[in-house]
Automatic annotation (TrEMBL):
Residues 1-10, 25-47, 655-664 have a biased composition (Basic and acidic residues). InterPro entries: HAT, Rna14-like, Suf, TPR-like_helical_dom_sf. Residues 56-72, 632-642 have a biased composition (Low complexity). This is mRNA 3'-end-processing protein RNA14. It comes from Trichomonascus ciferrii. One of its GO terms (molecular function) is mRNA binding. One of its GO terms (cellular component) is nucleus. PANTHER family: CLEAVAGE STIMULATION FACTOR SUBUNIT 3, RNA CLEAVAGE STIMULATION FACTOR. Residues 1-80, 626-674 are annotated as: Disordered. Its main location: nucleus. Component of the cleavage factor IA (CFIA) complex, which is involved in the endonucleolytic cleavage during polyadenylation-dependent pre-mRNA 3'-end formation. Keywords: Coiled coil, Cytoplasm, mRNA processing, Nucleus, Repeat.
């Protein structure tokens, strides 16, 4: 459609099909090649060797200090190179919203429309559901008279961004280009009405859509009916719109209800009661629900769709709790909706949640679980695709996606999911290595924080390989799983956990310890000084009743470790000897243990021999742990009882002494008043006053003249004041 045509003809509803299927696809070619050809060495004949083929590769080299950034360090930017500096910030962190916004403003100043469009497109790849960015993009095109491009932008963003600000902007655009006062005014009015209905169909139950409902009602009223039939038709449409709106928990539902009452009353007082009564209950429910929602949401900005990256703050935690509380409330169906409408409302709320809480994997995961439980598998897969794009290193989302693909026997896609997750973590590692090298080049020292991040990243990557291997084993068999293990173990930074996982997988595959033992042995060449790995291997040998190799492993391992590192291994071996070995061997090992660790006592070492499932009878009985615990419990009970003072009761109307006399026929009572527990709970003084009363001396210790408050009150009551004094 040309711009000339746009100026002449009213616009129809934007075609929503274009761009509706936009999704974030993985880099197919590279990933597919890796998914189908990973670990070719696994094809070699393993029967000709004592060691399996997938273990005959040369050991992974030790990780060397990174030099990745030596030739690709950060460019030195001139002070006036604002755009370059912003681009550097974005290259370092693509989720840096402030950098993106500043970059957009810089290009606006330069008035370079094509470059600005490119920036918007790049920004939207990172923030595809950012209503604020889409609105800004649309406004830029409108300012330049690019109506056709505006139509295209709305076609792309409206299906996937159910945000009231964006859709209100769309309505404003439609009303702008469809002039109801032109010669084609009736046609323009029809188009606008269609768009309002289109908006209400998708966002009509948004709590913030109330102003749009009111706006639509005013739009209907603005048409002047020339005939009785047209006026009647207008009244019917108004009644229908009012009755739809007042059943929805909108922010202005009370105003709409009052307006509806006035509308019906002005039309016909006789029928007004009937029409109003029909919707009264639904309105009361909606009003009650919006109040509950307001309390749940509080000051939370639920319309913000360009959130900052997660910082793990208290505020974020509170917002997450509020969203989950709101979602659970919606699922309980407080509005009493039918099953299908309830689904739509809950899904809509989830869409609002993931736009606002984009970097919270647990909310995406919860949405997927709900969709799967409500037979919406296709939508669940769509959510997952968006979720892994927003959270590229999330374990819970990628693992869930891979699990669903495995369940549906989409094995190629399952592999691609794991490979994509691995690539994302490896990319993060590359950035860390570059950062470490740059810091070392500048300061001559290695950054301890970055090194710590590299350690955790190595464990993360190993964990993904382990999960990948197990999934492939379930779906495709042990041979394919070995290929994944072979690829993972070659990484110079992979941790020992992948060897343990592979060995145990092999053992439970056929209950044969041969291959599993060889995997542990190969791993021992690399991790012989890591106590945790040696202990895993030791436990395996004990489990498979390989006593000889277990003892040999212990002896050759403890000499390579420091005393502190070897301690868990000593204690594990002591436990084994105490339970299954000979006494002589146990005594020798205990002597070695006490010689190495001076802080242990003979009693503690001896008592461990007889402990079982966490119960140590020597410690409990002979060393009195049981009795000390019982005595402490009794002491605490007594302290609690002593602090439970009898509540002081207050009667504002009758003094206690007088009340007691009255209750006993005018005679002073010698019986102590003892209130019931319920009475005490209702009339007990505040804790601060109770604490003060406890430290005051008892009344019996006051042996002088006592002030009689009752007589003073009586005196004041009976004293007559001269009238001339009262007048003053």
């Amino acid at each position: 459609m040309s711009e000339a045509q746009e100026d002449k003809e009213p616009q129809s509803v934007v075609d929503m099909s274009e761009g509706a299927g936009e999704s974030n696809n993985v880099e197919k070619k590279e990933v597919e090649e890796r998914a189908t050809s990973v670990g070719e060495e696994g094809k070699r004949d393993s029967t000709a060797r004592s060691t399996p083929a997938f273990l005959t590769d040369s050991p992974a080299p030790a990780a060397q200090p990174s030099t990745a950034a030596s030739s690709t360090g950060k460019r030195k930017r001139l002070p006036q190179d604002v755009v370059g500096k912003l681009e550097d910030r974005i290259a370092e962190d693509a989720s840096d919203i402030d950098a993106w916004k500043e970059l957009v403003e810089e290009y606006k100043k330069k008035e370079k429309l094509e470059e600005l469009r490119e920036i918007y497109e790049r920004m939207l790849k990172n923030f595809p559901t950012s209503a604020e960015t889409w609105i800004d993009y649309v406004d830029t095109e409108l300012a330049n008279g690019e109506f056709y491009k505006v139509e295209q932008l709305f076609s792309r963003c409206l299906p996937k961004v159910l945000n009231i600000k964006l859709w209100t902007h769309y309505l404003g655009y439609v009303r702008r280009i469809n002039n109801v006062n032109s010669t084609d005014g009736e046609k323009a009015r029809q188009v606008i009405s269609q768009v309002y209905e289109f908006v209400f169909e998708r966002l009509g139950f948004d709590r913030n859509s109330g102003p749009l409902w009111k706006e639509y009602i005013e739009f209907i009223k603005s048409k002047e009916g020339t005939t009785t039939w047209e006026q009647q038709q207008q009244m019917d449409l108004l009644r229908k719109t009012y009755r739809r709106a007042i059943c929805i928990p909108l922010v202005n539902v009370e105003d709409l209800w009052h307006a509806y009452n006035e509308f019906e009353t002005n039309l016909n007082k006789t029928t007004a009661r009937k029409f109003i009564a029909e919707k009264s209950a639904a309105y009361m429910t909606a009003r009650s629900c919006i109040r509950e929602m307001q309390n749940m949401i509080g000051s939370m900005d639920i319309t913000n769709t360009t959130p900052y990256p997660r910082r793990w703050t208290k505020k974020e935690e509170k917002e997450s709790i509020r969203w989950f509380r709101w979602l659970e409330w919606e699922k309980k169906n407080p509005l009493g909706l039918d099953a299908e409408t309830l689904k739509q409302r809950v899904v809509f709320t989830y869409k609002q949640a993931v736009m606002s809480m984009r970097y919270f994997p647990e909310i995406w995961f919860d949405a997927v679980e709900y969709l799967l439980s409500s037979d919406q598998a296709a939508l669940a897969n769509e959510f997952l695709s968006q979720a892994v794009h927003a959270n590229p290193t999330s374990f819970i989302l990628f693992f869930k996606k891979a699990e669903l693909e495995e369940k549906e026997m989409k094995l190629k896609e399952m592999r691609e999911t794991f490979i994509k997750l691995l690539d994302n973590h490896k990319s993060y590692r590359t950035k860390l290595e570059q950062q470490l090298a740059e810091t070392e080049a500048e300061t001559g020292a290695r950054d301890a924080d970055v090194e710590k991040k590299l350690e955790t990243n190595a464990r993360d990557i190993t964990t993904v390989y382990t999960a990948y291997m197990k999934s492939v084993k379930r779906a495709e068999g042990i041979k394919e799983a070995r290929k994944v293990f072979s690829e993972g173990r070659k990484l110079p930074y992979s941790t020992y956990h992948i060897y343990v996982a592979s060995a145990m997988m092999e053992y439970y595959n056929d209950k044969n310890s041969g291959i599993a033992g060889k995997i542990f042995e190969v791993g021992l060449k690399r991790y012989s000084e890591i106590a945790s790995y040696v202990q895993e291997y030791f436990n395996f040998l004990i489990m498979t009743n390989d006593d000889t190799n277990a003892r040999a492993l212990f002896e050759k391992s403890v000499i390579k470790m420091s005393a502190e590192e070897a301690r868990p291994l000593y204690e594990r071996f002591l436990s084994y000897e105490a339970n299954y070995g000979e006494l002589a061997a146990l005594l020798r090992l205990e002597k070695r243990y006490k010689d190495v660790y001076a802080d242990v006592t003979a009693v503690s070492v001896f008592s461990k021999r007889y402990s079982q499932d966490g119960y140590d009878p020597i410690k409990e009985v002979d060393l009195g742990e049981r009795y000390r615990g019982a005595n402490q419990s009794k002491k605490q009970t007594k302290q609690q009882q002593s602090t439970k003072e009898e509540p002081v009761l207050v009667d504002d109307d009758v003094p206690p002494a007088k009340r007691t006399k009255e209750e006993n026929g005018g005679e002073a009572s010698t019986t102590t008043y003892s209130p019931t527990f319920e009475q005490a709970a209702q009339n007990a003084l505040p804790a601060g006053i109770m604490a003060l009363l406890k430290v005051l001396p008892p009344a019996a210790s006051y042996d002088t003249v006592r002030f009689d408050a009752t007589k003073l009150v009586k005196l004041i009551k009976e004293t007559s004041i001269p009238e001339h004094l009262l007048d003053n």
